[in-house]
């Protein structure tokens, strides 16, 4: 085999490997987000302690709408929308907001809650139990659970204003 032919075969082989890798990446990106498939399904049950040590069970909120808000202090969009979540928690008598922090320390979450005046229940998903149940892949993610206990809606990304979140809740 000549040197020239060997180089061409190498280039073709490398191009083939790149094409296969690109196809795999495109398939992964275009796959339906697994959490979206959970809409209209019964919300997975969970129980964790909040910042006051009170046991928070999703089943305790049956008959009420629940906003599960997955967030972290290292996520700028999460931090920005927490005041929006707080106002909604105060204003909406028909809806309970539960903040699910992803794997941060109790001290970090308590300090953040105190400095931002958060009064709605906050739980820490230290080992990813709830995150896995709900197949969360991005922060922030907000899940609306209807009074029937079924997932009504899922939103990935931050709500920029109270009206955006209110509209989203109203349409759910």
Automatic annotation (TrEMBL):
Residues 37-172 form the Thioredoxin domain. PANTHER family: PROTEIN DIPZ (PTHR42852:SF13), THIOL:DISULFIDE INTERCHANGE PROTEIN DSBE (PTHR42852). The keyword Disulfide bond applies. This is Redoxin domain-containing protein. Signal peptide: none annotated. GO terms for molecular function: antioxidant activity; oxidoreductase activity. PROSITE patterns: THIOREDOXIN_1, THIOREDOXIN_2. Gene3D superfamilies: Glutaredoxin. It comes from Paenibacillus rhizovicinus. Keywords: Disulfide bond, Plasmid.
């Amino acid at each position: 085999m000549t040197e020239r032919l060997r180089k061409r075969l190498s280039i073709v082989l490398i191009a083939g490997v790149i094409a296969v890798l690109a196809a795999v990446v495109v398939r992964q990106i275009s796959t339906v987000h697994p959490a979206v498939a959970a809409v209209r399904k019964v919300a997975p049950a969970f129980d964790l302690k909040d910042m006051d040590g009170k046991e928070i069970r999703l089943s305790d909120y049956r008959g009420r709408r629940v906003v599960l808000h997955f967030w972290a202090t290292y996520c700028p969009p999460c931090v920005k929308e927490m005041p929006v979540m707080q106002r909604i928690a105060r204003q909406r008598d028909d809806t309970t907001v539960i903040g699910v922090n992803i794997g941060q320390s109790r001290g970090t979450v308590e300090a953040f809650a105190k400095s931002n005046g958060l009064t709605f229940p906050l739980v820490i998903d230290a080992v990813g139990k709830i995150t896995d149940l709900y197949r969360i892949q991005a922060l922030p993610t907000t899940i609306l659970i209807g009074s029937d206990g079924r997932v009504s809606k899922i939103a990935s990304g931050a709500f920029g204003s109270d009206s955006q979140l209110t509209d989203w809740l109203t349409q759910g």
